[in-house]
Every structure is written in C-alpha cells, then in structure tokens.
Protein 1
Amino acid sequence: MRPLAPQHVVAIDVGGTSLKGSVVDGDGHAVSLERRPTRAEDGPDAVIDAVLALASDLTSGSPDTAAVGLALPGVVDDETGTVISAANLRWRDVPIAALAAERLGLAVAVMHDVRAAAVAEGLLGAARGAHDYLLMTLGTGVGAAMVIRGQPYTGAHGFGGELGHVAVEPRGPLCGCGRAGCLEAFASAGHIALRYRAMAGAHAEGCSAREVAQRAATGEPIAGAVWREAVDALAIAVANYVTLMDPELIVIGGGMAAAGGELFGSLRHRLEAHMRFGKPPPVVPAWLGEEAGRYGAAIGAWRAAGIDEARLRTWQTRP
Ligand SMILES: [Zn+2]
C-alpha cells in the first residue's frame, strides 16, 4: 500500500525579536501559529536552539509534515542553506539547513526573508504574474529583493539586492552599516524618526516615522522636510534600480508602506522626476504584510516536498 501523501509543511519566519512558526497545508492555510522569542540576547547558540526547538515542536505536533521552510535575515546563501552573517541573530556562518535537517530528518528549504517575501508576493500577492520586479520593505531597516525572470536573485555571495545600502547622498547621515548616506539612513522608519527628533527637539519626543508622515501631511514644516528627504532618497534608489534593471513593477511593503497614499503618491511623482530612460514602472503596495516571509518559507518547503506548482497558484491569500 502506498503511504498517505504528506499533507503539511512547517514554515518559520526568523526575526530579530521573535520567531513565527506555522503548520501549513497544501492549500496554504496555516493551521496553527506559534510565536516565541528569538533569544538573541543569549547568544548565537541560544538562537539556533530556539529555531530548532520550534521546528521540532511543530513537526512532532504534525506527524505528516513533508518539509520545513525557514525565512532568515542577514546575508543568506539560499543554495547551501547557510546564514553567512546576521547581526540581529548574532550568527556567522551557521549552516542552519543542515542543522535542521539533521535534527528533524526532513528536507529543509532556507531563504533570505526579503527574498521569501518577494517569492510570496510574486506567486500570491501584489506581483502576481510579474517576472521582473523589485520588492522593498520599509521598516526598522530597508530590505530589498530583486526578482529577475521569475527567480529571486542572490548574486555570487548571497547579498545581491541590498538596495538599502546603496548611497543616495555621500555626505548624508551615518547608516547603521557604518557608512554615510545609504538609502536606509534616510528612508527607514528608524532613521526617519531619529532625524525628525534630532531636528524638531522636545516637540518630537517619542515620535514614530508614521507620526512624522502624518505631521508632514498636515503641513508641519520640519516633518515635511524629513519626509520629503526620505521620499526623494527612495526615488533616487528606485530610479537607479529601474535604470539598471528595467523591472515591470516595484512593490513596497513593511510598516512604512502603511503610510499609504502619502508615500505612494509622492514616491511616484519623485520617481518620474529622477527617470531619464524609459517610463517609471508601477509602484504598488505589498499585499501580504507581516505574513509574507512565512508564506515564502511555506512555498519553499512545499517546493522541497515536490508540490505541483499549479496548486501553489490556487492559494488564496485574500478573503
Ligand atoms: Zn548602510
């Protein structure tokens, strides 16, 4: 008698503060969601233990699990399943796919988290049907993933697509990476809030990037200046990408994308101003929000388990 076909995979999105894991069926439904602390403050081994323990608990709770998918931050070699470096996990050269496969006895697919999100947006979300597109996530930092001819592009060493660390103004503010003037130092939520607080003083105490966007919209001049600077930096970086790669579509996600019309309207306008060759492609909001990385990990796991691609395309991500 043939064994029953495996009916679930386990997908885990590994973030700097929390791990989000789900058991996902062949129709893309998450039948469970578990969130645990990453434990980065306890060092790299504690994070490895936390990831493996969550994967192990989820797979033992679902004995028909066919494969495991992990979405991870940092510089990730998707091919070998190794995290080359991830500052917020304190990892360096961690062969997480091999460690997980050994512990679980299952196939393990590993993807950089923003590339995982880009794959999910392409199959199920805002980039459905597109073959050449860029996904940017504007949050605490600026993440980006390039999809070229339907495949996420990693480059030769796993860090291809780090648009957040492209310089947009060499004399600009200092970025977390140690260099001045990166896109991230202008357009990440963290830096927008920092710049506004530094310029506006007491009046800006505890103000988040979204509040800066709201204050800018009501005509507050300092917030307006910081916001315009952020949008212009984004427009320069996106225009550079479009000039080099000629994508069909730009998808923007992350917490800042929730600024909605404020961001998208002014970004399209500034992008137009910075383009010299061709027309700017559509710039659209991501659909999958915080779940994009976990969807990408589930897709990676189901592909490792040999699912029919046509079935993946039937997944419904919107009600
Ligand atoms: Zn940088």
Protein 2
Amino acid sequence: MLVVKDVEAGYGAIQVLKGVDLEVKQGEIVTLIGANGAGKTTLLRVIAGILSPTQGEVIFEGEKITRIPCHKIVEKGIFLIQEGRAILKKMTVLENLLMGAFSCSDKNLSQPLDVVFTMFPVLRQRQRQLGETLSGGEQQMLALGRALMAKPKLFMMDEPSLGLAPILVNEVFAKIRELKSDEIGILLVEQNARKALQIADRGYAIEIGRIVLTGTGEELRSNEKVQEAYLGGRRGKRQN
Ligand SMILES: Nc1ncnc2c1ncn2[C@@H]1O[C@H](COP(=O)(O)OP(=O)(O)OP(=O)(O)O)[C@@H](O)[C@H]1O
Ligand SMILES: [Mg+2]
C-alpha cells in the first residue's frame, strides 16, 4: 500500500532523514519508534506531502506521490493526525466530525457518523459540546473519529498517547486496535514503544534519521537492543 524508498529530507541545511525505507501493507498496523529528534514526525510529514524529500520516493497504491501537494494526498486517502491533537476547539464535536468528512466526495454523512458514534459512544453523547471542553482523552477520540470520517486508506498518527493519563492511554490504544481492518493501513508513531509494539503487526526503529531495526511487533519487543533503548531495560518492564 505504502512504500517509502530511500527518503532523505530535512529543514534547510539540516538533514534529518538519511535514506529511509519503510512499508505499510493494507490491513497492517505498523509502528515507528525512536528517541526524541530521531525524525519520526519528519517522516510522517514527508508521506503526508507537507515536506518535500530531497531524495527518494513515496509510493502509494502503486503511484508515486512524492511532491504532490498535501491536499491531493488527503484526497488519495492518506490522513495524518498531527502531534498534539488536531481538533477545532471552538467547534462542537459534531462540527469537528463533519469537518473531517469535508474532503470526501461521498455526501451521505450519516453512515460514517454512525460508524464513528458506534466506535466512540462518548462522542455521540457530547456532540453539541465545544471541542475545547472535552477531556484530553476525549479530544484524542475526537481526533480519531474526525479522521475516520474522511474514510482514510492510510491512517497515520503522531504520538496519539502524548500527555494522556495512563488509563486514557490504554483506551486510545484499544481504539486504535479496533480501527484495524482489512481495508486500512495504520502507521503509528509512538514514544510509548511498549504499547505500540503490543498492537503492531510490524515495527521499525529509527535512530538519527536511519532505520536501524525492523521486525514483527513481537520480534522487536523481545529484541535486547529494543528493550535497552526503547523499553527502558529491565526497569521499564515493571511499568505496564
Ligand atoms: N521546522 C523545523 N525546522 C528545523 N528543524 C526541525 C524542524 N522540525 C524538526 N526539526 C529538527 O529535525 C529533527 C527531527 O525532528 P522530528 O520532529 O522529526 O523528531 P521526532 O522523532 O518526531 O521527535 P519527537 O519524538 O520529539 O517528536 C530534530 O532535530 C528537530 O530539531
Ligand atoms: Mg515527533
């Protein structure tokens, strides 16, 4: 579904990504783990068309999408939930959800709304409430719901658990697991590597702009290097 080939990208003179290869197949949850500043967000920006790579290419459903403007990429079915919960605070829950469907040509919105409300009953209850008055966890659910309204084929999430209390983190991960279906691919960037690897089919570890390890979620979780670098070694094992 998505193939990233030898991508190099950065900001001005600063090169961040140094030849990244990555793949997401339809129906898969793939996670990208790495330390702060490794280049995770930068890679998502390249795939979403927000940032142009200086080398390499991005292929989606067999078509080269490198350097296509980001609104066109959204139309192709690639949706990115950016870091820090991109919801519209001064709009109600319902308005936020309808905005999510803005780019999809299908004008019958009651069906996708039903899907979202079934998955997130809290959003049905709160549909008239302003986005900013939702709790952190509810705002994350709204961001997921809003993205679902656009019926994405490839769903990318940048740190969806950031800043959430542990109980909400579990809830968000459970919902991401529920989103998994044969039709969509999910690319999940997470600091919470343990949780991400638990729900992922496959994962990649990125270090200063290079992919250093890849494998199934299970393989990476039991990998010693991953445990040391991303799961906090033995100490980390007690956490969850
Ligand atoms: N707009 C920008 N201008 C200049 N440098 C940037 C910009 N955005 C990111 N960088 C730099 O690029 C590098 C990679 O940043 P990126 O945001 O991709 O990291 P990340 O892996 O997502 O980290 P985190 O886990 O902290 O979110 C960092 O050194 C960062 O300072
Ligand atoms: Mg980031």
